[in-house]
């Protein structure tokens, strides 16, 4: 899963010199190779490809869940897997902020994060059962949280605030996905 040679810098903080021009050039180089995700430290920038790309699968989610952050190329799965680990292992609420202009792909990004969380939760529950631990299932089966997730997939853009927010929280009864 390593990135191809000449595919630009996967983490923009490593650009030298780091300027607006080098940052935008790096995003352009990566975009031309269908590499739409780039880290900026622990944040992720994605460029909407405006077409379907083969970047998403349950196998890939499991790969990101199995490896620590930054050992695989930048991806929404990496951000979601990191948030999932913090909720699962540290019992700390997490928030992923998805922001952008109208048509930037905020709703699609939220959908991808939710798909990753579902696969993570199903795998986490199975792993806990194998180890004999009794952890609550997170997230609960899709049928039990679908109504809560529906508002998350209706991203809106206003001039004052162009962000879609979703929160992964283990502090609620039965550990469920909630909208903030």
Order of helices and strands: HEEHHEHHEE
Which class do the helix and strand fractions yield?
alpha+beta
- Rg: 17 Å
Q: Provide the domain count.
A: 2
Strand content: 5-15%
Task: Work out the number of β strands.
Answer: 5
Distance between the termini: 34 Å
Task: Give the rounded overall mean pLDDT.
Answer: 76
Please count the helical segments. 5
Helix content: 25-40%
Task: Record the strand order, biggest sheet.
Answer: 3-4-5
**Shape label:** globular
Given as residue ranges, the uncertain stretches (5+ residues, pLDDT < 50) are 124-131, 134-156, 160-180
Main pleated-sheet profile: 3 strands, antiparallel
Q: How are the SSEs ordered, and which strands pair?
A:
Layout: H1 20-32, E1 37-40, E2 43-46, H2 58-66, H3 76-90, E3 94-99, H4 106-131, H5 142-149, E4 163-168, E5 177-178
Antiparallel strand pairs: 1-2, 3-4, 4-5
GO molecular function: actin filament binding; ATP binding; microfilament motor activity
Family: Belongs to the TRAFAC class myosin-kinesin ATPase superfamily. Myosin family.
GO cellular component, one term: myosin complex
């Amino acid at each position: 899963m390593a990135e191809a040679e000449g595919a630009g810098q996967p983490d923009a903080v490593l650009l030298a010199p780091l300027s607006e021009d080098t940052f935008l050039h790096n995003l352009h180089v990566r975009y031309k190779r269908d590499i739409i995700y780039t880290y900026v430290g622990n944040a992720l920038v994605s460029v909407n490809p405006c077409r379907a790309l083969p970047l998403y699968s349950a196998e890939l989610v499991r790969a990101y869940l199995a490896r620590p952050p930054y050992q695989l190329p930048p991806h929404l799965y990496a951000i979601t897997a990191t948030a999932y680990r913090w909720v699962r292992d540290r019992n700390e609420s997490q928030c992923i902020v998805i922001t952008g202009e109208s048509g930037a792909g905020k709703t699609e990004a939220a959908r991808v994060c939710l798909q990753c969380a579902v696969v993570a939760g199903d795998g986490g529950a199975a792993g806990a059962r194998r180890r004999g631990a009794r952890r609550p299932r997170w997230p609960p089966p899709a049928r039990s949280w679908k109504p809560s997730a529906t508002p998350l997939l209706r991203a809106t853009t206003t001039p004052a605030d162009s962000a879609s927010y979703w929160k992964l929280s283990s502090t609620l009864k039965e550990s469920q996905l909630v909208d903030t």
